[in-house]
Batch of 4 targets.
Target 1
Amino acid sequence: MIGNKTIKDFFGDRLKQRRMNKIRNRFNMRTIWKKIFILFIVINVIVVIISSYLFFKINYGEIFLVDSNTNVSVETVNRTLLLDTINFFEIKEKEFDNLKTNKVNLVDPSL
């Protein structure tokens, strides 16, 4: 039978505790968390400053300047060409419908 001591060694509880103690002795976790928290706050403050800067610039119209004298040209469609195209496709639709309803008699060329 395996003893309790070998089971604990097998699962490495002692090794994990030793490693964690070495890490804890090398680093002060409280200062690390303080640094992480301060970094988080600084990044959020920077994001808020940049966002508010962009908001006010856009709100006053200083970022996206657009000329009000732009000429708009609208090109119209040639109606006769459009109607001819529509008629062409309607004729093609009727031909396809006729092909669907009437079977085509094909003669076998090998006869």
Target 2
Amino acid sequence: MRFRGLLILMLAWVAALGWTQQSPSLGMYEVLRRSDVYVHPEMRGKVDPQKLEDAANSARYDTKFLILPELPEGWTRNGSEARGPFARHVLKDRLSLQDGVVVVMTNKGITGYSDKLTTEGLRTLNNQSLGYTTATDKTPGLIWLGQSINSQMHAAAGRSTMLTFGFVGAAVLLLLVVSFGVMIARARERGAILQRINHLRPKALDAMTYLDGYMELLQTPTNREGLHESRDRAFNLYEAGLAKMKDLSRLAEAEEFFQASIDEAKRGRQFIQAELGEGPVALTTTPADYQPGKGFPGAPLFEPVPEACFFCSKPDSTAPIVIDWEGQRRTVWACEEDQRVVQSGQSPMMRGRQQPNGQFTPWYSQPNYDPRRDYYGGGYIWDVMAMSMFLNVMNPFGWMMTPMWMGGMNYGAGSSGSEGSSNSDYATGENFGGDFGESGGFDGGGFDGGGDFGGGGDFGGGGDFGGGFD
């Protein structure tokens, strides 16, 4: 009786296995959840399901064989198959295997996948598997590929265990050296980008400051509206760049936004030129008509300390210049060096101190500081900031502040009140997306004698290739 019962159970198991391999009503993913092999009816003559089942049962890790005439819809393009991404999809998304192997075969080739092996390692094994297949029987190649991936996964796990327990050797040293080299390269790259950004940000602020100097001077509605719109767009792009800088991996995007802000501000100058011609720059020297103790006509004298350079505090400065923002002009003193900076079209550096709350206060707001006594003495440690940047710290974007010497100045989101939202025209581009865009370029074993991906293309960095039988 016991023998008869065992015989009945064995026959039932064999019947169930055959049914799962042949039943069209049971999905292939469900079959793979119940067993280790799925063979499409059209492919029965090309593989031996029982040998594949035996190989999967003897494997160290969960190993699944999926035999199809072609990949499902959505995994081919222009005749090219993404077997590697498809195998990854089956392993991770359909079967949710943590330590597993999926081997996919179609009429075009064989590809195995495990997330424990490198892209190069998988590519090599996929191509080598072709040497174990014949025109009429692909089973040996499939079994060899599954066993080889299992072996390399086990070897990789052994190396990982050795590192975990602290067996430091040449491999670990090499890994550290390579990692350190990569870190240095990335740090240098980011440093170079940051250096360029630090050059672009003041330029962007200068460019917006230039536009602000003419906001209230243009009388033609078309020119005034066009200038406001350009100013708003430049500001939004600048704000988007600041947001990107919060993520070090997106510094390159931040650089693009700052450059775009500069370009947009430059486009706004056309409205100024259309009405006023070239006109004076926002920071300008005036050659004549200075009235001692009063300043230039229309530009009252602002003198925190008599004859001290407004920018660096150097005493006995003898060059009066006009500062022009949003139509509000002031006469200030400048030393010869800062006068040359202004004449060159650049923004002078403002001397002051950065407060713990991030606000920059100018030198003339420091208690007990006397330029005539302290300028050359070295008793003060100063921060410096570009004049255009200084204005923004005193009057940050998006709110209004009234400095004692300027009157109302809204250096914010532009006169039209636009908030600092990102301009979609400069948003980051999207990759091809999906599993095609994430393929690691490890597909191999093409039966058609060439690369189904053609060495790259839309499937992301290389694809099916290798020797073939045709």
Target 3
Amino acid sequence: MLRRVALSLGMISGNALAWSGAYEGQVLVQGAQLDKPNDPDTYVIDKQQAIRASWREAGLLSFGKQLKFEYGLYLIGHQLSGQDDFDHLSLMYSDPRNRTTLLDTYIQRQPRMDIYATLDRLTLKTQIKQVRVNAGRFPIEFSKSYIFRPNDIFAPSTYNQLDPFHKMGVDALQFSGPIAPLGEWKILGVLGYDPVTEAAIDTDGRYIFPVNRLSPDRSSLLFSMMNTISENSLQMIVGSYRSTLIFMASLEGEFTKTWGYRTEIKQIADSKNFKYEFSSVLGLDYRWSDQTLLFSEVFLNGAGFPSSDYYDNIENSPYKPLAQFGRYYVGLGMSSEITPLLTSRLVAQHNISDNSSFLSLNINYSITDHFDVSLVGVGAQGKPPVAGALQSEYGAYPNSLGLQTLLRW
């Protein structure tokens, strides 16, 4: 829900300089029981309670009709009942490859508690005739799929993300404009940064981020065109992606009023290192009723491995961090409005390459317009790790069951 204000700020050339603002915020809290695979070399303890929380405040200031400024503050943290051996779950959101760490900080980082803050939106927006300009930190979204998202190449979402509907921003400059009849073109430059080592403790004992240095070789320059004709939307993206050539395309639409489709492809060509990656997703949707949508996807993951025998190479993969480890996947899902106040979402994923599976469930009840309560569950099946070595992708995931509350204003 947006709150709006409008004021007049003095006089310029005899005219009032008016500005208006809109802001929104939310607090999300989740408590869960984690049941991890029994492998002491992977997890120190196999059962654990966790509390995770996030606070987000976002605003948009408009100065006249041509100039806007968007900001977003994001604070997230978690506390565990025992030693944290799962790589700081709540802090997997930040992808430092395209975000300067100057806007990130730890308020607290302890073995059992993390509190992390970031300026996740910082965007100056203007328009020159029909050309729109965005400069700063903002989200970039190319993927159209529901489950597997190979075209989500900038700050991709993670499976354990506390707020799955929040897309993290990256440092970029974007020019865009209309294409008849319902299309849009974009020229997009995204800054890249060198990887950083583990942060150090300063003299006050406070955990701080090192500053990651800007890297032209890790930056990207892309051109995108999108158009919609007769309920079918086609998008194509081409350019330089971290010193490699990239081509992406997506197509989505409807066969009938009940059947729909989504597909996307990605081709990366790294001629310097003789590495080529092709990924594709084909999805079908079925509108069971006005309240229920069924969807399915088949995924060829060009960056993945054909079996778990190769998972030892994940750390050295040029495409790290990998969203999925395997080469072939299938997924099924259902979203349903049981009543106007009660909704559910169920998604199942299967890694064909290592025969492991992952199931997530969210049942949400809106108590008021500003407050929701959800039951959140995750189930994983597959060969568990042995002596710290992965035997399957989802077999290394913890099972969890928890309660989540969301307060909006």
Target 4
Amino acid sequence: MKKESNVVRNWVCFGMALSVILPVVSSFSPAGAEGFNPLDALSKKATSAWKMPEKESCYVVQRQILDGLFRYNVFNNLKVDALTPAVLRTLLAQHYLEKMPADPGQRGSTSSHFKLSATGSGLLCTVHGALPASMAPDRKTLQAFMQNPCFHWQLNLSTAITRFNRAKNERNTKIDLALLARLVEEGYLSAIPVDPGQGVGSWSHYQASRGGIGVTCTRHGPAPELIPH
């Protein structure tokens, strides 16, 4: 649990910078009886995005990029300040992104169209413009994640399960000890989660959820909704 604890302590140090440069962007929902994949909602939006107007479709892609980049920064206690080809390849290789971003309606390799921005939502497209700030969480939501270790664990769990499912091409119907052990063994988590203040065995407080970020806690409740609706 050392890595997660270090990140929680460092939230306050870089949280305000993230609120401008790398806002939390997520739309998680497990897939019911067929299995658990917290990023299903974003994946479905990406699939249908090609039927949308180009600008709206581009916004879907920008949300996916911000989501993957934010989670990469939190898990690794980093702050990426440029969306370089190397960064995008890392996000793809480590399963923070499902596929290399492509600018809808544009030909050729278009991942270079996406740039970090110091204003608004934190990301823009050189063709279709910036993702509106209204599509990113407000500072109150960010503050909740900075101050609440349980919410932080929920975020780490949803991230770990999503990356694991993508890497293994699996779907999981529930969060149980067997799944958590696999996540730790293969490096997706540094330790079995412990609900803060509840002691050993409190991993069972964390369950898959159809709302929020895809994980909830039976004692502390779900983390805040991350994407405004």
